[in-house]
Automatic annotation (TrEMBL), chain B:
Coiled coil spans: none
SMART domains: AAA, NIL
Organism: Evansella tamaricis
Domain ABC transporter: 2-241
Keyword Cytoplasm belongs to the record: no
Pfam families, alphabetized: ABC_tran (PF00005), NIL (PF09383)
Protein name listed in UniProt: Methionine ABC transporter ATP-binding protein
Key words, A-Z: Amino-acid transport, ATP-binding, Cell membrane, Membrane, Nucleotide-binding, Translocase, Transport
Length: 228, 341
């Protein structure tokens, strides 16, 4: 045990393992909370985008245009700029713009439009004939959404949230740069700014491991759900 | 059961107005299998979709089972749709659900309790002959099996009317036959009114009682299937009838025969029902001074009885041949001179 610790210290002399672990937890915290909310908002926005489009259940040009504009704007603003722009909003909601919780509004607002587009694409992939079949059986719009649209697009929704989760992990790293905590923060301030390459390297490795785990779980789940 | 009055559907497209269904009047009786045939773009799908209001009519009325479909509230329309089953060319099954779950889908929509649903699903699986495949997903089924699921699903809520939009067009001939047999079976067992659209005359021949021929949004001819086969009036109808009565090669083969002179008059006789069984040719040979040569013949079965066509060449005196024709007409058999000097 002692030996192992020594070895690690030899490879990563400047790494403080408890700080590293804390940063990892902060990253996981930021990514998972924002992921859950992104999932909810993304599906709502994506459904809205899809349903209000011409020929669909809630066809409405006005709402469609406004939603699409909102999604496009927030999807196009580079994340690092978005965080800065949102500082007043964050301070108002969270009470501070530092720390992991303060990163959440920016993460959610940055990732939801991105996921909403993926949701919209997933819904578009559904065969129009299936929706029509449901209508011909007398299904209400609510039944069509919950019994047809969401279940039929589930594999695509899951693979979309996997991509979004990975994007969120990299967003948390960026958020770290302006003091959100987590592995990005650690890599930048403790590693890069103090020229401790081993700290940066270790933080990167952990980020990569997190990404691989997300991808693995996401792929497995998508395959399991996909009955096509 | 179904009556359409002055039904019109116009689409507004970038290229101007398209009248897909043009002032159609039509009555379909309870318990009958009614076929609508037409080429691509004739407006068949639009017409059948107007029946359950998947398209809203531009004008005119749709009455089904005593309900005026275009005057229903959303809620009433949903209820009315539960009594009208529909099957589709591409089946339109939910791939995320198993066969059983697909069949249970319309029951869920109607709010049938779980236990009852299960019982009904099992009945339906038996009815359409899918025993043992209940837990499969649609992607694991053949086209014919998928359509059986589609039929079971359409029948789940005991509808009064079944609409079939090209239900067999994606299937091979053998599978088509088995699905058609299933439809006839259901029609007889459940007394269900079936409206089916197709571009294949043999589908009409096999299972329909009455047929309407559609062209450019209008119904150009309609009637009892056997009558329409016997005496098609419109050119369009004749073309469709030929699909069934004459193999494509017939015309070419006959042309070839005409070239090799020596062949006299060629007549096409069309028999219907009981007449198909009379010893007509025998009588001709015995009673008239002509020689008769049978070139080709075919008998097919329709829902209203057998239907046959026969191509014969007749040689002899011109007047005698005329008398032969008169005799044949006297036997209620249609005659058409295909070739004659
Ligand atoms: N949603 C629509 N918008 C505009 N035009 C349409 C629409 N649906 C159908 N049409 C037009 O209406 C006409 C009839 O179409 P319909 O689909 O009813 O034909 P069909 O007889 O079913 O043909 P097919 O055998 O190819 O299915 C066509 O000219 C088509 O272009
Ligand atoms: Mg069609």
């Amino acid at each position: 045990m002692n030996n192992l610790l020594l070895q690690q210290t030899w490879f990563f002399p400047n790494v403080n393992w408890s700080t590293m672990w804390e940063a990892t937890l902060e990253t996981i915290y930021m990514a998972s909370i924002s992921l859950v909310l992104t999932f909810v908002f993304g599906i709502l926005l994506g459904l809205l985008l899809f349903l209000t489009d011409t020929g669909n259940l809630w066809e409405n040009k006005g709402i469609q245009t406004v939603t699409a504009a909102f999604v496009n704007i927030f999807r196009s603003v580079p994340f690092i700029i978005l965080i800065v722009l949102l500082i007043p909003f964050t301070t108002f909601i969270v009470g501070s713009f530092l720390g992991p919780s303060a990163a959440l509004p920016a993460l959610i607002i940055g990732a939801s439009p991105f996921y909403a587009r993926l949701v919209e694409i997933a819904l578009r992939e559904i065969d129009k004939g299936v929706i029509e079949a449901a209508k011909s059986m007398g299904a209400s719009n609510r039944q069509i959404i919950f019994k047809v649209l969401l279940p039929e697009s589930l594999p695509a929704l899951v693979s979309g949230i996997t991509v979004t989760a990975i994007a969120l992990v990299s967003f948390t790293a960026m958020a770290g740069v302006i003091g959100a905590g987590g592995l990005g923060d650690l890599a930048y301030r403790h590693g890069f700014q103090r020229s401790r390459e081993d700290v940066t390297l270790m933080a990167t490795i952990i980020v990569l491991v997190i990404v691989f785990i997300i991808q693995f779980i996401g792929d497995r789940l998508t395959n399991k759900l996909d009955k096509r | 059961m179904i009556s359409l009055t002055n039904l019109v559907k116009t689409y507004h497209t970038r290229d101007g107005q398209v009248t897909a269904v043009d002032s159609i009047d039509l009555t379909i009786d309870e318990g009958e299998i009614f076929g609508i045939i037409g080429y691509s773009g004739a407006g068949k799908s639009t017409l059948i979709r107007l029946l359950n209001m998947l398209e809203t009519p531009s004008s005119g009325n749709v009455m089904i089972a005593g309900k005026n479909m275009n005057h229903l509230s959303n809620k009433q329309l949903r209820k009315a749709r539960q009594e009208i089953g529909m099957i589709f060319q591409h089946f339109n099954l939910l791939w995320s659900r198993t066969v059983k779950e697909n069949i249970a889908f319309p029951l869920e929509i109607k709010g049938v309790p779980k236990e009852e649903r299960e019982k009904r699903v099992n009945e339906l699986i038996g009815l359409v002959g899918l025993e043992g495949r209940g837990e499969s997903y649609p992607s694991q089924l053949s086209g014919g099996q998928k359509q059986r699921v589609g039929i079971a699903r359409a029948l789940a809520n005991n509808p009064k009317v079944l609409l079939c939009d090209e239900a067999t067009s994606a299937l091979d001939p053998k599978t088509t036959d088995s699905i058609l047999e299933l439809l006839v079976d259901i029609n007889k067992k459940l007394g269900l009114t079936i409206v089916l659209i197709t571009h294949e005359m043999h589908v009409i021949r096999k299972i329909c009682h009455r047929v309407a021929v559609m062209e450019e949004g209008r119904i150009v001819e309609q009637g009892n299937v056997l009558e329409v086969f016997k005496k098609p009036k419109e050119l369009m109808t004749k073309e469709f009838v030929k699909q069934v009565t004459e193999p494509e090669e017939t015309e070419e083969a006959l042309k070839q025969l005409f070239k090799d002179n020596g062949i006299g008059h060629v007549l096409q006789l069309t028999f219907v029902g009981g007449e198909a069984k009379k010893p007509l040719i025998n009588t001709i040979i015995k009673s008239y001074d002509v020689t008769v040569n049978i070139l080709q013949g075919k008998i097919s079965q329709t829902q209203n009885g057998p239907y046959g066509s026969l191509f014969i060449s007749v040689e002899g005196d011109k007047d005698e041949i005329d008398r032969v024709q008169d005799f044949i007409r006297g036997q209620q058999v249609e005659v058409e001179v295909i070739h004659g000097e």
